[in-house]
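Suppose you are handed only two things: the residues of a chain and a line of SMILES describing flavin-adenine dinucleotide. What would the bound structure be? This form records exactly that question and the answer produced for it, so the two can be stored side by side and reused later without any lookup.

QUESTION INPUTS
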Amino acid sequence: MAPREVDYLLIGGGLASANCARWLREEGADGSVVVVGREPDPPYNRPDCSKGYLRGEESREEPLFRPNEWWGEQDIELLTRTSATAFDAVARSAKLSNGDEMTAGKVLLATGSNVRRLNVPGCDLEGIFYLRTLANADSIRAGTEDAERVVLIGGSYIGCEVAASLTKLGKRCTIVMQEKATLERGFGAQAGTFFQGLLEEHGVTVHGEDELERFEGDGHVARVITRAGLQLDADAVVIGAGVTPDIALAKRAGLQIGERGGVCCSSRLESSLVRIEHWDVAFNQGKTAALNMLGKDVPHAEVPYFFSDLADWGGLEYVGPAFDWDEEVVRGSPGDASFTIWYVQGGRVRAALTVGRSDDLDHARRLISSGAQLGDEKSSLGDLDADLASVAAGAQ
Ligand SMILES: Cc1cc2nc3c(=O)[nH]c(=O)nc-3n(C[C@H](O)[C@H](O)[C@H](O)COP(=O)(O)OP(=O)(O)OC[C@H]3O[C@@H](n4cnc5c(N)ncnc54)[C@H](O)[C@@H]3O)c2cc1C
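ANSWER OUTPUT
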């Protein structure tokens, strides 16, 4: 059978694809738009999976990108429970798990990431969970309902957010992680120590500079054994050990993979979509991809933004990212839970994290995108009385 011809084929059923489909229609694309997603659910906001939805505060509909009827109203064909099993970048054609084959005028590859699994002894025991999807959140809720003690493996944002959510649900949570302080890998020791303090204040136990060695139990997990020799009783375990970009299709199609594991593409996001691991980045890159599919020739200029909430105890906002920095300048006071950390490398602001001072991030965006070399302005970043607008303007 000849492949079906469509105008826009969006592979991946996450936020990036969904927002790309939305912007195609908003900007007047009148051709056929098909979104192909492996999951049973229509596109949704994953952040809810470790926050309100996990705590049972949100219905199943609340995290959805758009209500179910929206897709039909927009004349967007949404194929759930369907995988693209092969992709030919030259012919712009894809084979689907339902047996269809499609060729398209434009293709978006937005296959997102998969959780990194830890293959240690006992990893197949019942009661051990990962979190990526709404269905995973359902399993964690069901699997921890009668649990008293939950161990979280990993001190990054999944481990910390789930620890906060499950503590709110009355569980005794313990985090085991390689880092010295929670969230330290992405945001440094000062921010990490602040967030760890917040978790501990609310009853979460944290074991840093340690590592999972194995799980023990008879059919169901009962204990977590760490490299340092801790034996932690556990009625359930949630693992948040990072993600790996899902580049299987892209690799087989011969697309070039970059050094951070995503697919290489131009500033117009042509060739395909880079790996996206922040909600806001997926959202904005989906939009930029749509505009460029429509020939609008817009570079992707957004400075990536990230947020994380520890239940209603506190949260962070961040623009960057900085993978390396040689200095942290602090504005405000962690003691008052109102501060911004500027991550500076070679005299240039690479990233900024804030707790309770969101307005600072507008200035951070300007400083990051201009790449301005800071002179005397650098000390003003840490001065609460300094006017950040003039600091940013002065450093242009
Ligand atoms: C629990 C959780 C909490 C989070 N919280 C935050 C937060 O607080 N703040 C923040 O900024 N970010 C957060 N994130 C990250 C954010 O949600 C992701 O960065 C975002 O979902 C990425 O969107 P995406 O569309 O690029 O990829 P994904 O969401 O990974 O979507 C890709 C989709 O494509 C599907 N797919 C893959 N291959 C194929 C194929 N061959 N055929 C068909 N379908 C395929 C996948 O199954 C998946 O459904 C969180 C993530 C998780 C898991």
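WHAT STANDS OUT: The two ends are 59 Å apart (CA to CA). Residues 184-201 form the longest helix (18 residues).
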